[in-house]
Design goal:
- There is one protein chain.
- By secondary structure, the protein is mainly β.
- The chain has one domain: Beta Barrel (Maltoporin, Chain A).
- The protein is 9% helix and 50% strand.
- It contains 7 helices and 31 strands.
- The strands form 4 sheets. It has a 22-stranded antiparallel beta barrel. A 4-stranded mixed beta sheet has the order 1-5-6-4.
- A hairpin with a 6-residue loop joins strand 25 and strand 26.
């Protein structure tokens, strides 16, 4: 069901229908580590920790969980990028409290600050807005179908085995919250031996983190794991203007998991999660914003979630699966004198069957998803979306070099009606080359919570009316080559999004100042065209990686009379990472990331940002069970408030007192600590 407005992009695919790609840079990076590891297994330094690492690497011949095919990563027609365990460990010592740094340094992904007052951020994939990215845990929406911007900052990476990223619309797999892509967090599994890990970290900006992980095999077919964390951040006002640049926060997290395997191939996975956080920003005590008032901006969050996956054989060739999850999240926001008390809830129940025979794999099922929001303060914005759906996927290997995947989903949305979301992917692998391509169609169910409203609250937003669904079509073509220690990869992508919801400013009094906003659909398409380039070289224990991302973005202006760049979307960005690492002994690395100019929309001080360079150095040494680490980030001390104030001269019509964040806002920071494994 393609609408006429989406046909031009489909025509683009037709002109390149059989010129298709490799898996993305992190996926190839993962395979490349397998080769590195097999070489290192013959080195002399095979101590117990090294051997344990080798075992983990061997086990990482990944079956991708973010798709329904059950295929190995290298055989997957759909483009999936994987951040493996060793990279997760590296990023965990940089930011143990959340996954933002780990995700941000993946090619084609930008973690964008959405609320300078609270430090919240979301995940933009290939320039698309963060609300289009579905965040999953083991394939389940444990953080909600439409996770808030703070969700990214409330997930520690301690118990992650790998992170899987699908770029482009994945609505055919996961429904209405995935037209930009999917980030799936895959948990660690208990091994044959008991594992315990403790990490303690402190920062030069008054931050502290303590995380723990334990995995216990209770029997040959039953194991449990438990992770918990305590995180604290002190208040920082770098430019002494009375506005808090880094909000204070205190957060506690806990998550037990259970894994069971039956003799007949049945499996059960169950998890519970708990998180509570108090985050305080806005003005310091005794200080004011430009209108002379004290303006606190705080948020208290409590989240409880649970998930269950049951796999069971239906016959020799067919497997059944039941997946379910529930999430309840309570918020108490404060925006100056306004306190907003609300709750988000998310539910999923799904049943499916899958099978395969002689190069053909299939999956089909039905699902019911519910997303609801209720507010004590502003009940006029309450909504409940019930979405029953049918889905199917068919993968076929024509030869050992050529494979295709076709998937589709039919949803009956309680608010936006019948929606059909197809996806087609193809894989071709001649010799050292890999080609992959995908085209996909999807939709997004709008809510009041665009980025500006998450930052400013609902007090100045008009009740929603005449809003229609946002629809997207995405295309990607990847071309990769790998020979020995040299790897090159190029990705070309395009996205069209119709009816993007945005805020429109207006006056509540005829002839008065702009003091209200309403949510409207843009009068045209948001278009993004771009490419990702990767070059990687491995030599013994040394690895050098260079990357470049280009995005040409445009969207209609408020009147629909002209087009302009999508705000906070740099046209050029690049990275260079050098790492010297010997598993179980040490690692020493340097990172440099360049971010080019961006259009700045919500600022009285400028319309274009400055480019900036972010440089960091990381060192870690392992002695027995202890790994001691130190990490220096933003060595050049880049900070937006060195260039201009963060506070606006007058309050914006949507209620924000702060400008857009187009740069870093924390300056130079050093962190260090110890990780114990036993």
């Amino acid at each position: 069901m393609y609408t006429p407005s989406r046909m031009p992009l489909l025509a683009l695919l037709a002109t390149t229908a059989f010129t298709f790609p490799v898996y993305g840079q992190e996926a190839d990076h993962h395979d490349e580590h397998h080769e590195e590891e097999s070489h290192e297994m013959h080195d002399d330094h095979k101590d117990d920790e090294h051997a344990e690492h080798d075992h983990e690497k061997k086990m990482d011949k990944i079956i991708v969980q973010a798709t329904r095919s059950g295929r190995l990563l290298q055989d997957e027609p759909m483009r999936v990028e994987v951040i493996p365990r060793e990279e997760i460990e590296e990023k965990a010592i940089m930011r143990p409290g959340n996954i933002a740094t780990m995700v941000n340094e993946t090619g084609g992904i930008r973690v964008q600050v959405t609320s300078p007052a609270l430090g919240s951020s979301n995940i933009r994939i290939q320039g698309l807005y963060g609300r289009y990215t579905q965040l999953l845990a083991d394939g389940l929406p444990l953080y909600g179908g439409q996770a808030s911007s703070l969700g990214l900052l409330q997930i520690p990476p301690t118990d992650l085995r790998q992170v899987e990223v699908i770029k482009g619309s994945a609505t055919s797999l996961y429904g209405a919250s995935a037209i930009g892509g999917v980030v799936n967090l895959v948990s660690r599994r208990p091994d044959e031996e008991i594992e315990n890990e403790i990490l303690f970290n402190i920062t030069s900006l008054d931050g502290q983190d303590l995380t723990t992980y334990s995995a216990i095999p209770l029997s040959d077919n039953l194991g449990v794991s438990f992770t918990a964390g305590a995180h604290r951040q002190g208040v920082k006002d770098f430019d002494d203007d009375g506005w808090i640049d880094i909000p204070s926060s205190e957060r506690w997290t806990a998550r037990p998991r259970l894994f069971w395997e039956g003799a007949n191939g049945a499996e059960v996975y169950a998890t519970l999660g708990f998180m509570t956080e108090q985050r305080n920003g806005g003005t310091l005590e005794g200080r004011t914003v430009p209108d002379g008032t004290f303006f606190a901006q705080n948020q208290d969050t409590t989240r409880v979630d649970g998930g269950l996956i049951i796999d069971f054989p239906l016959s020799n060739d067919i497997k059944g699966q039941i997946r379910s999850s529930v999430m309840a999240q309570d918020h108490e926001h404060r925006f100056g004198d306004v306190i907003e008390d609300d709750k988000h809830e998310s539910y999923l129940i799904e049943a499916s069957a899958s099978g395969g025979h002689e190069g053909t794999n299939w999956a089909a099922g039905l699902a019911w998803q519910t997303e609801s929001y209720s507010s004590i303060t502003f009940p006029g914005f309450d909504y409940t979306y019930d979405v029953p759906g049918l889905f199917g996927q068919l993968d076929h290997d024509y030869t050992d070099k050529l494979s295709v995947s076709v998937s589709g989903r039919l949803d009956e949305h309680s608010e936006y009606g019948t929606q059909f979301s197809p996806r087609f992917s193809i894989l071709y692998r001649p010799e050292n080359w890999t080609f992959r391509g995908s085209v996909a169609d999807g939709f997004y169910a709008p809510t009041p919570f665009v980025e500006e409203i998450e930052a400013s609250g609902l007090s100045r937003l008009e009740p929603l009316s005449d809003i229609v669904e946002e629809t997207a079509q995405t295309v990607s073509i990847d071309i990769g080559y790998k020979q020995g220690g040299i790897e090159a990869n190029a990705t070309f992508f395009a996205s069209d999004v119709d009816g993007v919801t945005r805020l429109e400013e207006f006056s509540s009094v005829a002839g008065g100042d702009l003091d209200r906003v309403r949510l409207v659909n843009s009068p045209g398409k948001t278009e993004l065209r771009g490419s990702e380039l990767l070059l990687r070289y491995l030599w013994n224990d040394f690895k050098l990686t260079g990357s470049y991302l280009y995005i040409d973005s445009s969207e209609p202006n408020e009147l629909g009379t002209a087009r302009e760049e999508v705000a906070l979307t740099p046209k050029h960005s690049a990275g260079l990472v050098a790492m010297w690492e010997r598993h179980g002994e040490f690692r020493l690395g340097m990172e440099m990331y360049y971010t080019g100019e961006q259009r700045v929309e919500n600022s009285p001080y400028r319309t274009r940002s400055d480019p900036y360079l972010d440089i960091g150095i990381l060192g870690e040494i392992t002695i027995g069970p202890a790994s001691w680490f130190i990490n220096a980030e933003n060595i050049l001390n880049v900070r937006q408030t060195k260039e201009e104030p963060l506070i606006r001269t007058v309050r914006a019509p949507d209620g924000q007192w702060t400008t857009d964040i187009w740069s870093r806002n924390d300056g130079f920071i050093v962190n260090g600590g110890v990780r114990l494994k036993f």
